[in-house]
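New to this. Help decode both lines:
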Amino acid sequence: MPLSKAEGLLLSNDELLGGLLENVTRRHQLAPLLPFSCIHGDSLRIARADAADFGPLPDFDTVPLASLPDGTATPTGDVSFELKMLTQDVATTLYAKENLSAVNDQAALQIQAALRRMMYEFWSAFYSGDSSIDPAEFDGVRKLIPAGRTLLPKDAINHYLTLNDLARLTSLVAAGGGRPDFILTSDLGYRNIHQACLDAGVEPESVSVPDGAGGDRQTLAFGGIPVLVDEGIPTNESVSTISDYTTAVVGKFGRDGLCGLTLAAPDGNMVRVRERLHATESTLITRLNWPVGLATKTEDALARIQFRPQPSTT
């Protein structure tokens, strides 16, 4: 029995495809680098203390016993980072699963597409997520950066970015020894950092970073810190009455820095997969749940600068 035209197209496309490929891939270049921490429960709580909270060492010869500290620092304040649930439902007819999966498993392709949608939803909230506006979102990087750690360029007239501004920005990161792991910006911001090097008469640096596909690629760098592009960073942020600013975020990963959060699972998988048959139709329903969030262990792990693009880069 010959294949129908639709079945023939499906199989021929799949034979060329060999998996799910995107026609236009969104750039979230931090994705291969962001570490995740597994937690138990629905949130991570951290007690932060400033250096001043510990005070000087007491003189045990002169200080009365009753006035000695009890051995614990007074926390500056507890902070909590909550997990939010990303969910996708995938419906695959049993006919497609059993009869149209000669080359690629149709249910597996649908699940792969759903996982990609969930990843994009995570990265859409990575910078601008705000749980006070949408309770279903985790707080993104913009919300996690404390007040007073957002800079503007020294150029008070145009707010164009310079290498001196980048040096000021990177100096704000003191977590984990004080060397940032990344500078994250929009594509427009990337071009402006490149232009700042040219304006200063400095040959732009480059470093090698993972490309997310098992290899490496070259990217722009400042002081050895890779400059990465994220399409979730807007190019129309407002400062005062002007709304054409973009942002560069500098940050540190690791024990004292930025990390993703997910729920600990016995199998080690971040995404939970459950399957069931539809009650009245010959359809397989697959539900994917991803409990996920972001956390910054210390306040000095992140900082950002807002700047206007130079006309030559737009």
